């Protein structure tokens, strides 16, 4: 119960700290790969990026956090994420795709916090209304 409440409060905090006016766009919006193929997803921001989080939502609805990075490159197995703060983009490269890579990929970009009474860092997540909406990529891997 406590764990679920903590997660709910965390989501609520993110919602309260949502910033309007900054845009995050992700491409491509949909992708179908043959097993073993590689692809790169790109997340562009309208303002300088100070941190990026890449996540994958599995077909059953479960969310997996893949990377959280402020600069440079991180690699985990077949996944590689980069962020270029000055150029305002991040990439997620998936090499040798497998069926378990299928899902919806999401990126969220963090921006510098404003000076003043605001207590929340500014985080702009890409909208998640439809599969083709910017900020998410629906990827299917078939054999």
From TrEMBL:
<feature type="signal peptide">
    <location>
        <begin position="1"/>
        <end position="21"/>
    </location>
</feature>
<keyword id="KW-1064">Adaptive immunity</keyword>
<keyword id="KW-0325">Glycoprotein</keyword>
<dbReference type="InterPro" id="IPR003598">
    <property type="entry name" value="Ig_sub2"/>
</dbReference>
<dbReference type="Pfam" id="PF07686">
    <property type="entry name" value="V-set"/>
</dbReference>
<feature type="domain" description="Ig-like">
    <location>
        <begin position="22"/>
        <end position="132"/>
    </location>
</feature>
<keyword id="KW-0732">Signal</keyword>
<dbReference type="InterPro" id="IPR013783">
    <property type="entry name" value="Ig-like_fold"/>
</dbReference>
<dbReference type="GO" id="GO:0002250">
    <property type="term" value="P:adaptive immune response"/>
</dbReference>
<protein>
    <recommendedName>
        <fullName>Ig-like domain-containing protein</fullName>
    </recommendedName>
</protein>
<dbReference type="GO" id="GO:0042101">
    <property type="term" value="C:T cell receptor complex"/>
</dbReference>
<keyword id="KW-1279">T cell receptor</keyword>
<comment type="subunit">
    <text>Alpha-beta TR is a heterodimer composed of an alpha and beta chain; disulfide-linked. The alpha-beta TR is associated with the transmembrane signaling CD3 coreceptor proteins to form the TR-CD3 (TcR or TCR). The assembly of alpha-beta TR heterodimers with CD3 occurs in the endoplasmic reticulum where a single alpha-beta TR heterodimer associates with one CD3D-CD3E heterodimer, one CD3G-CD3E heterodimer and one CD247 homodimer forming a stable octameric structure. CD3D-CD3E and CD3G-CD3E heterodimers preferentially associate with TR alpha and TR beta chains, respectively.</text>
</comment>
<dbReference type="InterPro" id="IPR013106">
    <property type="entry name" value="Ig_V-set"/>
</dbReference>
<dbReference type="InterPro" id="IPR051896">
    <property type="entry name" value="TCR_alpha_variable"/>
</dbReference>
<dbReference type="InterPro" id="IPR003599">
    <property type="entry name" value="Ig_sub"/>
</dbReference>
<dbReference type="InterPro" id="IPR007110">
    <property type="entry name" value="Ig-like_dom"/>
</dbReference>
<keyword id="KW-0472">Membrane</keyword>
<keyword id="KW-0391">Immunity</keyword>
<keyword id="KW-1003">Cell membrane</keyword>
<dbReference type="InterPro" id="IPR036179">
    <property type="entry name" value="Ig-like_dom_sf"/>
</dbReference>
<keyword id="KW-1015">Disulfide bond</keyword>
